[in-house]
């Protein structure tokens, strides 16, 4: 399935009936992502894009790196955008560190959420063009530190994150719930 917009195209690696999705997902896990990579390689050869962008490294990026081993043409530009702890956390594990290093070395363009991620990418072999540091999901514009103000004058709490084996947003929600009486006049914004 190919979806197009004014200047971008995105596609699903495969589209199948729900009864087969579990089988494909299990096979993909057992084969280390090679099922997704095989479908992706076929689609890349079919549509022959000028640019391939992997948003998030462990799933999209790894599948792309594996798919590129079998692609029948030279993709002009490979762009990567890390998401959350893609580099900071996963580089600590040898199997991920090796895959991340390879992915960064074949990439032409890299977008990071913070300067630290950009520095890590360069230290792991990225030598292409970098985009301005910008939180992947948009972020919050704080143009001046003075807008933060004193803690007693604040009445807004912004919670950014997600919950999984790395993300800990649920811990924040639990802490707020335990002390909810202290936040009667506060507003909460969940940004995830």
Q: Could you characterize the architecture of this molecule?
A:
- The chain has 192 residues and is an alpha/beta fold.
- 37% of the residues lie in helices and 16% in strands.
- The longest helix has 14 residues, at 34-47.
- The protein starts with a strand and ends with a strand.
- The model is unreliable at 1-11 (pLDDT under 50).
Topology overview:
Elements: E1 2-4, E2 9-11, H1 18-30, H2 34-47, E3 51-55, H3 57-68, E4 77-81, H4 94-106, E5 109-111, H5 115-123, E6 129-130, E7 156-160, H6 169-178, E8 187-191
Parallel strand pairs: 3-4, 4-5, 5-6, 7-8
Antiparallel strand pairs: 1-2
Quick structural gist:
The chain is built from six helices and eight strands; from the N terminus they run E-E-H-H-E-H-E-H-E-H-E-E-H-E. With 192 residues, it is an alpha/beta fold.
Descriptive terms for the model:
disordered N terminus, alpha/beta, 192 residues, globular
| Integer-rounded radius of gyration | 20 Å
Q: Termini separation (Å)?
A: 27 Å
User: What is the overall shape?
Assistant: globular
Strand order of the largest sheet: 3-4-5-6
């Amino acid at each position: 399935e190919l979806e197009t917009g004014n200047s971008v195209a995105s596609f699903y690696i495969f589209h199948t009936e729900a009864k087969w999705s579990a089988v494909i997902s299990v096979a993909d896990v057992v084969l280390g992502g090679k099922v997704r990579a095989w479908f992706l390689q076929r689609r890349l050869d079919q549509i022959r894009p000028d640019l391939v962008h992997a948003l998030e490294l462990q799933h999209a990026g790894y599948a792309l790196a594996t798919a590129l081993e079998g692609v029948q043409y030279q993709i002009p530009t490979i762009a990567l955008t890390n998401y959350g702890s893609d580099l900071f956390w996963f580089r600590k594990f040898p199997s991920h560190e090796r895959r991340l290093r390879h992915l960064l070395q074949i990439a032409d363009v890299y977008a990071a959420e913070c300067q630290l991620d950009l520095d890590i990418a360069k230290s792991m072999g990225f030598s292409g063009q970098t985009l301005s540091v910008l939180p992947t999901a948009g972020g919050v514009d704080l143009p001046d530190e003075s807008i933060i103000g004193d803690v007693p004058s604040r009445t807004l709490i912004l919670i950014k994150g997600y919950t999984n084996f790395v993300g800990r947003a649920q811990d924040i929600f639990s802490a707020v719930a335990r002390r909810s009486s202290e936040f009667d006049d506060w507003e909460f914004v969940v940004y995830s």
